[in-house]
Amino acid sequence: MQLRSLGRDDLPEAVALLDVAGLAGAKVNLARYLRCQPRCGWAAIVDGCLVGLVTVLRQGTAAFVGAMAVHPDHRGARIGRRLLEHGQDEARRDGVTTFLLEATPLGEHLYRKLGYVSEHDTLIVMNVRAGLPPPAQITADLVAIARLDRAATGVVRDDMLIGLVAEHGPGVAIHRAGELIAFGMIVGDRLGPVLAKDPDAGREIVDLLAPACSVSAVPEPNRAAVDALARHGFVEARRLRRMRLGPAVPIRVDRIWALASPGAG
Known about the structure:
Layout: E1 2-5, H1 11-20, H2 24-36, E2 41-46, E3 49-59, E4 62-70, H3 79-93, E5 98-103, H4 105-113, E6 117-127, H5 142-153, H6 158-168, E7 172-176, E8 179-187, E9 190-196, H7 199-209, E10 215-219, H8 223-230, E11 234-245, E12 256-258
Parallel strand pairs: 4-5, 9-10
Antiparallel strand pairs: 1-2, 2-3, 3-4, 5-11, 6-10, 6-11, 7-8, 8-9, 9-12
Helix pairs in contact: 1-2, 7-8
């Protein structure tokens, strides 16, 4: 088996693998991850075929692991473990000390064996009533958005936010006394990221954006966010488990009303 960087030319084969591995949601985000950080992806090659992949998005001294997949015909050969350890080693060379991820039930056992610990559950919720057009977007200062994001997530992912705004528009922002206190976006049919300093602002963003979205990911401990989404018809479809390897980051789950994606936090 060969481990090498995952490139843009690998996308058709990588997307097909994600489909076979039951991670269709990740294929929507994979190209975006590679645009954001061209060196974030790693591939496992057997007999000339791509049989495994993982992305490790650097976010300051933390990194978010995503798009972790191994072809069903090659499971049990330690490919996933070798891929993840290789991606972690490369990230550590860039100063990363903490790794975060959203584990599926299939992957959780591997992550625990590698030393990952649970932090909380993340709910993937689906909206059976989606269909309204999105609201008018409001321009917000990217510096202020990044500051709000860092205070909520505890990591630095400015490059991802810049890419999302450039690709999908400025989103919706709420200011009070000249300060940005909440921000949200729609990416495709997904609600997120949504960040808010207080529950009233979080609910206001959800009320504006949720009717136009069909899926979102929300930290279960943020019950105000879960309830706000439920009022718009969102119901739990499945659960992931937020896990961590390394020192904790100063996350404020109460300020995260929707993830950007399960592979980027």
